[in-house]
Design goal:
Length: about 140
């Protein structure tokens, strides 16, 4: 299953109730299209880095979705484009990054195991006496 992170900025002219309604509506659309909502993170009203559509502030929301085909993401992007409430959005697939981090960690663990095995075979035992043939 693929994981997507969807960040969108809502217009500052909306009230808190309208922002909550918009976020709930987009979450419901994602669920209706077959995605699972893993997390909804509302950052609140923040200043934008540069004016967007003559707005200096916006309500930031991060929606984390798990989905197989990307159908829900395409539908949400389509709705964001036609909505006046959404002033900016970005959808990013993050499961590849998670796989990369997991692969890096397994390589790191394997390397550490090899090093500890190599060190244990190289170090002589201190209590061991040299062998001599005594008959």
């Amino acid at each position: 299953m693929r994981r997507y992170e969807l960040v969108f900025v809502l217009a500052p002219t909306l009230t808190e109730e309208e922002v909550d309604e918009q976020v709930d509506m987009y979450s419901k659309v994602a669920v209706d299209m077959g995605a699972e909502v893993a997390d909804v993170d509302k950052w609140g009203k923040r200043r934008l880095a540069f004016p967007v559509q003559k707005h200096k502030d916006g309500y930031y929301t991060v929606l984390t979705l798990d989905e197989e085909g990307g159908v829900a993401i395409a539908e949400l992007e389509r709705r964001f484009k036609v909505s006046d409430a959404v002033i900016r959005f970005l959808a990013v697939r993050i499961d590849e990054e998670l796989k990369r981090v997991e692969k890096f960690e397994t390589r790191k663990e394997a390397r550490q195991k090899r090093r500890t095995r190599a060190r244990s075979t190289e170090q002589p035992v201190a209590n061991e006496e040299p062998e001599t043939d005594k008959e």
